[in-house]
Amino acid sequence: MNQRQWNELALCLVRKAVLAPSSHNTQPWVFRIGTSEIDLFADRSRALRVNDPEDRELTISCGAALMNLRVAASNYGFRVQVQLLPEEAEPDWLARATLSRDSGEPGAEGALTEFVEKRRTYRKQFAVREVDSESVEHLVAAAVAEGQWLRPLLSEETRQGAARLVAEGDAAQWADRSWRRELATWMRSRRRGDGLTVPALAAPVAQLVIRTFDMGGRVGAKNRELAETSPLLAVLGTERDDPDDWLKAGEALQRVLLVGCQRNLQASFLNQPIQVASLRLKLQNLIGGGVPQILLRLGYPVEEMPSAPRRQVGDVIEQEKWHTAEQARLLRAGDLAATRRAPHPRAPSPTGAQRRG
User: Fold this and answer.
1) d(CA 131, CA 153)
2) Res. 148: pLDDT tops 90
């Protein structure tokens, strides 16, 4: 494979990777293209300091992006060897994916590729239709395939308990002015390419209302109803709670979401009981142990939803590593952002070390 072919392939893979979900649709990732590898970095300039103080969800989001990259590479007939947290001195360097040519035929993971673009974060009420037991088994198996676990909340007592924790989480978060200010910052018009989408003219008003008013009671009641009426609630978790576990949880999460989409399911997140530290232990006890990372609601959508906005792919690639002529050609083809990404002061560097849609 020559340089041009590799650059085009790498661009395609990154374009799939960035379709992963992220908290507040922050898209907290940066990719570095090497000779036969793609490095994944955390972009901590997009961290949620209040909602996600340890960058746990940020890291999970990056793990989900890594899973998309793996799936896309498999579809092109490549084998992917993943090294998590390659350099202890560079904590922002989350993973290296090294590609090698396999048989040239799509691998097993490649069958999920078409669902990368079809997946949505579906925040509305689902159709009144039970998720069949076979689909539940496939979802559980998807998490197990990544070395993690998914526990469906099947008893009414457990479902009601989780729903109560969601409402308690909403009350705690909305009572925090700093949390409301952070949320308001990420309420943005679609043309921004990131954040939680609101109409452009309404954005300033929405931001003001969120910053000013504690709406925890109303929001909590709505989310509790969503939890109680969802066809399926499930907790995805790990055995430990370290950055590499968060990355693996992200890979497992995205595989679960893609397998669900393959079976006509969509999902959204009710992570409040995990984001609020005092409630996480309660959820852990409710489900019988393990470390809960994500609380999912899944079901069958009743309408098509537009995809969440995404930044230009050129904004998430370290472009200085690209050959100038090749970059110009891709720019002319409309594949990269029309302007060079200015390096962020906290962006990862090759030598130095340096917070979901």
Assistant:
1) 12
2) yes
Which contacts (CB < 8 Å, 24+ apart) does range 281-287 have? Answer: 282/165, 283/162, 283/165, 283/235, 286/158, 286/161, 286/162, 286/165, 287/151, 287/153, 287/158, 287/235, 287/237
**Domains of the chain (ranges, CATH numbers):** 3-119+307-332 (3.40.109), 133-175+214-299 (3.40.109.10)
Inter-axis angle of helices 156-174 and 177-185, nearest 10: 90
pLDDT tier at 356, thresholds 50, 70, 90: low
Residue range 153-177: mean pLDDT, rounded: 98
**Residues pairing with 150 in the sheet:** 236
Widest distance between CA atoms in the chain: 62
Has residue 161 got a pLDDT over 70?
yes
> In this model, does residue 354 exceed pLDDT 80?
no
Cβ-based neighbours of 244, under 8 Å, separated by 6 or more: 84, 85
Q: Is the pLDDT of residue 330 over 80?
A: no
What's the pTM?
0.91
Q: Are 34 and 68 in contact (CB under 8 A)?
A: no
Find the angle CA(269)-CA(138)-CA(223) to the nearest 5 degrees.
20
CA dihedral 14, 19, 24, 30 (to 10 degrees): 0
Percent of the chain with pLDDT over 70: 89
Q: What's CA 245's distance to the chain center, in Å? A: 15
- How many angstroms separate the first and last alpha carbons of the chain? 34
Closest by Cα among 236, 239, 250 to 94 = 250
Question: Minimal CA–CA distance to 235: which of 273, 261, 202, 199?
Answer: 273
Backbone CA torsion sign across 208, 212, 217, 220 = positive
Q: Output the CA–CA distances (angstroms, integers) from residue 72 to 12, 301, 342, in the order listed.
A: 8, 25, 28
Residues 273-323 have pLDDT tens digits of 999 999 999 999 999 999 999 999 999 999 999 999 999 999 999 865 544
